[in-house]
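User: My advisor, Dr. K., asked me to get a structural model of this assembly before our group meeting. I'm new to this, so sorry if the format is off. These are the inputs:
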Amino acid sequence: MIRGLWSRETVAMVLLAAYLPLGLFWLWLGGVDAIGRLGLSALVVAFWHLVFMLARAQAPSLAALITAFAIAMLAPEDLGVFRLALGISFGVVMGELVFGGWGRNVVNPATVALAFLGFGFPSFAWPIFDAPVAWAAIPAALIGVLTGALSAALLGGAGAVALIALAAGLLPQDALLVSGIVLVLLVADPVTSAATHLGRWINGALYASLVVLFATNWTGAAPVQIAVAAALLSSLAAPLLDEKVLALWIYQRRRRHGRT
Amino acid sequence: MVFFGRNAGLMPEFPSPAGPSEIEDVVTEEAAIRPPLGRAVAVTPLVKEGDTVARGAALACLRHAPDVCFAAPIAGKVARMSLLPGRRMSEIVLFRDDSGGVETHDTNKADTQSGLRRLMQDAGMWPRIARRPFGGMPHHAETPAAIFVMATDTRPQAPNVQKALDGQRDAFARGLDALTLLTDGPVVLCHPEGVPGVDTKAVSDRIQFAPRGTRHPQGSPGICIHQLYPADIDTPVWDVHAEDVAALGTLLTTGSLPMTRLVSIAGPALRESRTVRTHIGADLRQLTQRIVAPGPHLLMSGSPLDGLSARWLGGRDRQVAVLPRAAPARQTHWLFAALTQSAGTRPAIPTTALSQAFGGALPAAAFIRALASGDEETAMTFGLLSLLEEDVALADYVLSEGGTLLAQFRALLDHVETEFAA
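Assistant: The format is fine. Below is the predicted structure of the whole assembly, which you can bring to the meeting.
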């Protein structure tokens, strides 16, 4: 039997390749501290994947590395080993592994872990990114879109709303840069974003609108906090968006053919 | 990248050596007929082993619908007749013997609906038609809501349908006109853009023309049916290949049904690929004997995507894929096996490749999830009943499922069928 390319693990590898420019820039500018955080989160994520492989026969996925990278990059700073490990464990287990592993999860495990850390330990400062790291999100998005692993519609929807907000002066510079990184890393995840074409446009637009809403009305919030909250809410809304888009598709077909 | 409309789809490439461009006529020394895929059919044999039969003579008919016959693809001697328990047909093998002659049928009553239907069933045309939903050949008294004539084939390495029609354009037009007798609905001719393959003004005005793109699955019957005239339990839709419509046209003028068809032989395990004009049930070993490369290989009737390992050319197949036989898998360490494979199937990740595997015709991710979870109602709203394995094969290939998706699809379809039959 001849087999094609796009199995779950290949998609994970393509996504890893897409995030490579972002990761390399972040590691280069972050130095030893960044490597340490990445190593710790990779270790914790790998541990839980191993536990679920042995206990539930769930094949682990390379997407675990993406989760580890996103958490290491975006988690609040100076948390210490215990708090960070606790947050990652909650996110990975409750956000992904209990649902059956990568591909069956409803929300991105990194988003859950980051939201948990943000709510649980509000006194720790969120990270701040240098402009080069944020710019590296653009090649990441390009690789993802060209290979088809990331949705062009979702990035387009978010980009369109961001442009309008920029023109109206509603989106500050720092929020724009960070929300770009979060868009590529967390929101555009093909599993937890909307899966229909129109749904992806709306999903991207919803994320960008939430970022604008929080940036203008949430006083005292850090840019990463704003973007992670918007990512969490928009990925929770994604199934609803899909449902509505599919209902519209079925309605149109019934009108045209009298049946589906 | 997202492509829409006639640009939707993919172009999967399979390696195959080049070969001569001329078309060779081959009648194999042995040939066999097998029932169409799907439900097993109970038959009554009409000949005995050792009988000499004419080309086109009826070999067996359906037990519960004796009008529907299976015709001999070559003139010859009946070598073996294998029936499974319950008189279900397995295969009937013939040895070639040209002295058998050619069977002719009376075409006097073919200008009425019942007469044409009777002629097609007698002459062995019926198994060449596929019906949707559920697949297989149509029930003997069924009236389709629409008939799709496929003058395009976008499967990788498929023979050029327009080349197959060369020299039989008149017969094709006559066959198209005849098909309008069988249905009250439209007869839809799916053809490559700009090449309808027939004089559009010379045929009945009940024939609709549907230009299709060049990427697979644009020329897949199920995708065309799903987009243009969806099939349902009460509205069965038939699909028939353009070459078979031309054969119907010839049957109407000469009284004998041509058995030949253009078949492409391709695949990485060949020394050179070929296009031959051969017949249904041709012996694949003889067809590939001189051109196959040394080493173990696998002969498949059908395209590399949806073909099945076979000895004989299938009733609706126009491709032979020759693939190298993979070495048996080595025993892996338990930890490595646990890391790479698990008991359960892995989920499909919605990517652009997946949406394009259905030509953008349906919400791919939601459809795949409905198949995986066995949710038949949702799958039916997304077009389960218009599709068959050949339409889903590209998605199975793209997702690297190795047949899991096709098995899920067939299980769901069978379940819907038994549920609605009850």
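One thing worth pointing out at the meeting: The two ends of chain B are 45 Å apart (CA to CA).

User: Perfect, thanks a lot.
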